[in-house]
Amino acid sequence: MSRSAEQVYALLVDANPIPDVDAMPETLQQTPHLRVLDPRRDDMQTQTKPLQLEPTPPRTPRRRAWIPAVAAAVVVIVAIGIAALAFRGQETEPATPTEAPTTTLVERIEPTATGEDVARQAIADWNAADVDAFLSHFATDGQFREGAVANGDVQDTVAFYMALQQQSTIGDCSTGDTTVACTTVTTDGVTGPVGLETPMLWSFEIDEGTIASLDWSWASGEGSIFDGAVNMANWIDANHPEIWSASFAADCSMAEQHNCFANKWLGTPAAATEMLALAPEYLNQPSVQSARQFIDDWNAGNADGLFGSFGETAQFSGLPASDPYLRADVEFFMAIENVAAIERCVPDLGSSLVPPLVAEHQSVTCTAVTTDALSGPLGISVEMDWIFRVNDGVITDFQWEFDEGALHPQDVAADMVDWIEITYPDVFEATFAAECSSATEWNCWFDRWAATPQGGAELLRLADEFRAQADY
Amino acid sequence: MTGNHPRFDQIYERHHRSILAYCLRRTSREDAYAAANEVFEVAWKRGGDMPDGERTLPWLYGVARKVLSHQRRSATRFSRLTNRVARHTVPYQPQPDQVVVQRFEYETVCSAVNRLPADDREMLLLSAWEGLTHAEIAETMGYTLTTVDKRLARAKQRLKRQYEAVYSDNMHRPPASTTKGGEAQ
After folding, report:
1. Is the pLDDT of residue A39 over 60?
2. What does residue A82 show for φ and ψ, rounded to 5 degrees?
3. Which residue is closest to B92 within chain A, CA to CA?
4. Residue-averaged pLDDT of chain A
């Protein structure tokens, strides 16, 4: 597969769901491939992420706005597969057509106990970083992720991940005649300390008490620890060339060497040791500091500092950051003391296929719990991802993501303005009411009122009275 | 939606389908109709601000961009007020029976364009789907023509890279079995 930029662009032209506007009545139904476009990734306070369709693996990393929905489809398939495996024993009804993608996986699992014991012990040995004990569970011709465990580079791969302190906490295991599938939540020593976890499925084939094969699967593009490791290696290449040369760089081929990453570096215990040593620096690199400073400015109500961190053509939730209505809206949130408590800020956790840190724009995702002075006393807050793209310390793009359906602090603010309109119409007329259009003025809410710092101050003044009568 | 304003009637007649198509390409059918109506409501109210001639449609596209963004602000709150049910049926949420890829290449290129920075994506779609000239894109997005020329060229290169990446991702990483040696392909 090799296409020029113009050929890919031509493909995009062809992908137009409504190529002929004049023929629109016949083509109004959206074309299926458009589901991969997220029409809301540029929204401001209302940035959302897709709903989980199946039981959620614990602490699934949040979806980033530019993650391809093809990966989302993979998430759905894996999630359904995991759920189907976990609950298979309780299922009494035949699979519906919508469950078809997982049917094969489910049908080959049958109950046994011995295999599960082997699987659990193998994972325990993995967590204990005991390479020999782990490998001892395999048959002599056993396979670890498409590589023969007898091969040295396969064993190096195992040693690399173990040296990277990869740990898998088992959720459920489902067993069949010769198969065991265990759901896990997996971390490693680089990103684990900042809270990044990856739901994984360990799929074993076990023959007479030994592992014939073991494969992993996880949702790609979700900011997995594996992507994090690859992105960190890119960062080491760019920022610590001497370490890169000594411990990573290799003329290797992924097709031939199991522990060859990106056709350019080898996963070895020595490389893992370097990664662990450099992790604090990696996790606090300048782009991360820029992101943290942005949130600090937000929390401090420092609009000048916040907007000053943007580059000339920067985007803020899809709008030019220089938009005065956008700034008024931000200052409104600052006036009601909207604050974000950072849980973590981590660089470039998307798919490793996203341009790496050495590219023009570095990505940083901060996860923070956000509330304000109106909704905080009501116990209302929302966990949001603050997603940045940073170029040489200057923020070039910023947007939010949060769970759809959650009660958001901004909803409380909107409810309160409604209450003011009824209870204190004079205040509403004087401070909020505006002949405005939400289509052209970002701080125009519902075409009825304008969010301004002055309005925020009024909300704060009346907050106690509002909360006393509110019912959330 | 028509009124007594002869110019508005003419503009509505001429551009409504284009604006509706723009919205349909970016959101659900239901929301697209609402958004298109809102665009022309703005045009009606702000007829005096609306440029004439060739610049009218880009101006309307610019309004449509904001309308679609704001739509979510209203939608989320409305959703909560209606027990947060309505939004759960947004067509963009992939259903299990919809994950089968019917048009692999289209899906791949759409995934690729979705990975691009917001401005890159919007420029490409305005060019590829709305068929706007560089000058019209500049009008719609508030940039100079030179800026659009340069950024669109770079956006195409980025699209190519992302297309190759998504393509490789899809070809080599089936859902139930990942490839070896990390995820750096």
Report:
1. no
2. -60, -45
3. A35
4. 78
User: B6 CA to chain A: closest CA distance, Å?
Assistant: 22
List of residues 6+ apart from A190 with CB closer than 8 A: A164, A225, A228, A229, A232, A275, A276, A279, A282, A283
Q: Identify which of A33, A80, A407 has the shortest CB distance to residue B80.
A: A407
Identify the closest residue of chain A to B175 by CA–CA distance.
Answer: A74
- State pLDDT tens for residues A377-421: 999 999 988 989 888 889 988 888 876 667 889 889 999 999 999
Query: Using CB atoms, which residue from A14, A101, A439 is nearest to B66?
Result: A439
Residue ranges of chain B whose pLDDT lies below 50: 1-4, 79-102, 172-185
Contact B26 A44 (CB under 8 A): no
Tell me the count of A-B CB pairs closer than 8 A.
Answer: 311
φ, ψ (nearest 5 deg) of residue B12: -60, -45
Specify the pLDDT at position A219: 65
- Given a contact cutoff of 8 angstroms between Cβ atoms, the answer to whether A80 and A95 are in contact is no
Report how far residue A88's alpha carbon sits from residue A110's, in angstroms, rounded to the nearest whole number.
Answer: 9
Among B57, B65, B77, the residue to mutate for chain A (most A Cβ within 10 A)? B77
Among the partner residues A12, A32, A317, nearest to B124 by beta-carbon distance? A12
Choose among A415, A406, A408, A407: nearest CA to A463: A415
Q: List chain B residues with CB under 8 Å of A229.
A: 182
Question: Is residue A87 predicted with pLDDT exceeding 70?
Answer: no
Burial pattern B19-29, b for ≥16 Cβ within 10 A else e, equals: bbbbbbbbbbe
Task: Yes or no: say if B42 and B121 are a contact pair by the CB < 8 Å rule.
Answer: no
Token readout for A230 is 């690859």
DSSP state of A220: T
Residue in this structure with the two tokens 């937000």, named with its chain if needed = A298
Identity at A336, one-letter amino acid code: I
Which of A9, A406, A326, A404 has its CA nearest to residue B121? Answer: A9
The dihedral of CA A159, A161, A166, A168: what is its sign? negative
A218, A313, A440 member nearest B63 (Cβ): A440
To the nearest whole angstrom, how far is the Cα of A301 from the nearest Cα of chain B? 22
Residue among B92, B96, B88 nearest A80 (CA): B96
Contacts of B61 in chain A (CB under 8 A): none
| B93 vs A contacts (CB less than 8 Å) | 50-51, 53
